[in-house]
Amino acid sequence: MTRRTRLAVVLTTSLLAAGGLAGCNDSGDDQSPASGPTKHHTRATDGGATDDAGDDGGSDDSGDTTTVPVYFVGDTPQGTRLYREFRKVAADGSAGAALSLAASGDALDPDYGTLLPAGTFGDITYDEQIVVPLPDDSWTRLPDGMSERDALMAIQQIVYTVQGVLQRRSPVVFTDGDGNQTQIFGVASEDGFSEADPIRTLALMSVTSPETDQSVSGTLHASGVGSSFEANVVWRIQDAGGDTVKDGSATAAGWMDKLYPWSTDIDVSDLDAGTYTFVASTDDPSGGEGAGPTVDTKEFTVG
């Protein structure tokens, strides 16, 4: 049995058992991957037409730039999952620019990274399928040190990003330098890759606002997406010393089947000027007996 055939058998078995992380034109394994997210710029190793995760959308900021969703990866109690940041990229070729940013691992949040090799994406076209030319032929093979589960999550990093930018749920196919459809990381799909189940792919808690290093005055508008027990989002604000100075909860629009938006306004007018951390987490009904809550943090300043 060849390595490629063996990988296909392993992945097919994994998909049948775990619900389809590859998303091969359908909507994983919760074990932590053998290798983790990479920040290419700091170290060598380390939701479509409507987005189920909430408020994706490419809103034009100017004639030259547009704001798009870019998916990075981070660690959660369920293993490596996808986190979303809204980023400004060039309006011309925004999908390729967003994928190049995802591959760079250059997230604003220092807790996020990437599973993708470094590479620059060119023009992306779409009709019934979204066609993504790979940066080079090395992307067709499983990179050294990348686990098979990481390969599936890396593919989803691309799928969620490009579908979010284009606001289309069309299946994603990959082409080589000659424009021929090809596999990616040793995984082939004739029909293309669709977004995988968000509950098994996305971090169950993700903060959209405040953004990392945002300056806030008077009222902090906190928002994000999540899937938390009974839609309860637990939040707190910590000072530079790690002490909690404010805490509370918010209610998301739903839970269980996908990630739902949540938001809350917090009075910070009584806080001294300085740096603080906003912490949002899922509720933990197990009382610490389970894997624990999924947490996302954003550092911000009060001026």
Automatic annotation (TrEMBL):
<feature type="region of interest" description="Disordered">
    <location>
        <begin position="26"/>
        <end position="69"/>
    </location>
</feature>
<keyword id="KW-0732">Signal</keyword>
<feature type="compositionally biased region" description="Acidic residues">
    <location>
        <begin position="52"/>
        <end position="63"/>
    </location>
</feature>
<feature type="region of interest" description="Disordered">
    <location>
        <begin position="281"/>
        <end position="303"/>
    </location>
</feature>
<feature type="domain" description="Bacterial spore germination immunoglobulin-like">
    <location>
        <begin position="206"/>
        <end position="289"/>
    </location>
</feature>
<dbReference type="InterPro" id="IPR019606">
    <property type="entry name" value="GerMN"/>
</dbReference>
<dbReference type="Pfam" id="PF10646">
    <property type="entry name" value="Germane"/>
</dbReference>
<protein>
    <submittedName>
        <fullName>Gmad2 immunoglobulin-like domain-containing protein</fullName>
    </submittedName>
</protein>
<feature type="signal peptide">
    <location>
        <begin position="1"/>
        <end position="22"/>
    </location>
</feature>
<dbReference type="InterPro" id="IPR018911">
    <property type="entry name" value="Gmad2_Ig-like_dom"/>
</dbReference>
<feature type="domain" description="GerMN">
    <location>
        <begin position="69"/>
        <end position="175"/>
    </location>
</feature>
<dbReference type="Pfam" id="PF10648">
    <property type="entry name" value="Gmad2"/>
</dbReference>
